[in-house]
Amino acid sequence: MTSATMDPMTQTLTEAAPAKINLYLHVTGKRPDGYHLLDSLVVFAGAGDTLRYEPGPEALHLVLAGRFGAALSDAAGPDNLVMKAATALEAVCGPEARIQGGRLVLEKDLPVASGIGGGSADAAAALRLLNRAWSAQVGHATLLNIAEKLGADVPVCLASQSARMEGIGEVLSAAPALPDCGMVLVNCGQAVSTPDVFRKRDGAFLPRAALPARWPDAATMVADLAELDNSLEAPACVVCPPVQTVVSAIAALPECLLSRMSGSGATCFGLFPSVWSAQAAAARLAQSQPGWWVWGGGLV
């Protein structure tokens, strides 16, 4: 059988789940139901998890692997976001779908509870992967509806493309055209609870940011981003003091243009003029801080 005629139902398929980075994150308000309203520019890095589907006769189940798989060893059951995504997708599949069991193998290479959307990216990857593996042909609007119910970051992770994210995460619009740049990601190894961070906020809200249609170069982009903020960085530093240490360590790296925390933490990022300069900076920091998770590269 040639590759052109191979049946996808018998093949192992993979899907990337890239890390989600909030270049800025403003908490702009709060709904009556308690959910906070956000305004954020989201990009995706070359770092990420990988989800693999291996069809088989057994009931669909999740297997955890990778550097951080052990940290989730007790969370591979039906309450895992990947399995919730699979269940939700199966529920909307039409008669043309060829639903099959087997196993989903999650190569967990991103730190857990770290503010870069790892679990959300994994759930979004599961929707894309199983929609393809099952030949389900579920449309994007339906997938987006499922994503909204799974979590605030899942909708933007569904396309895994730069976007402006508003509302509680469900209002997506085009991001400014981004210039070439490099990025360093750093995590101190301490998981941070998002509810704990929100509880430590001082209650003040920030306005919706004014963004251009495009940035001509990294320096111009950074100048604009420096005028914005991450509303959750200060409270995250209270919950997890090493966050400030990481932000400062990144800022001190050669050629760093901007250093900030992503999401609700504890992962922080640095923007650099090029992929090469980011990789060199990451190598330098990883050598001096062997206990930290450090990655350097480009955006996807």
Automatic annotation (TrEMBL):
Belongs to the GHMP kinase family. IspE subfamily. The active site is at 20, 153. It catalyses: 4-CDP-2-C-methyl-D-erythritol + ATP = 4-CDP-2-C-methyl-D-erythritol 2-phosphate + ADP + H(+). GO terms for molecular function: 4-(cytidine 5'-diphospho)-2-C-methyl-D-erythritol kinase activity; ATP binding. The gene is ispE. Pathway: Isoprenoid biosynthesis; isopentenyl diphosphate biosynthesis via DXP pathway; isopentenyl diphosphate from 1-deoxy-D-xylulose 5-phosphate: step 3/6. Catalyzes the phosphorylation of the position 2 hydroxy group of 4-diphosphocytidyl-2C-methyl-D-erythritol. One of its GO terms (biological process) is terpenoid biosynthetic process. The keyword Transferase applies. This is 4-diphosphocytidyl-2-C-methyl-D-erythritol kinase. Residues 80-159 form the GHMP kinase N-terminal domain. Its EC number is 2.7.1.148. Residues 223-285 form the GHMP kinase C-terminal domain. It is an enzyme of class 2 (transferase). HAMAP family: IspE. It comes from Acetobacter persici. Keywords: ATP-binding, Isoprene biosynthesis, Kinase, Nucleotide-binding, Transferase. ATP binds at residues 111-121. The lineage of its organism: Bacteria, Pseudomonadati, Pseudomonadota, Alphaproteobacteria, Acetobacterales.
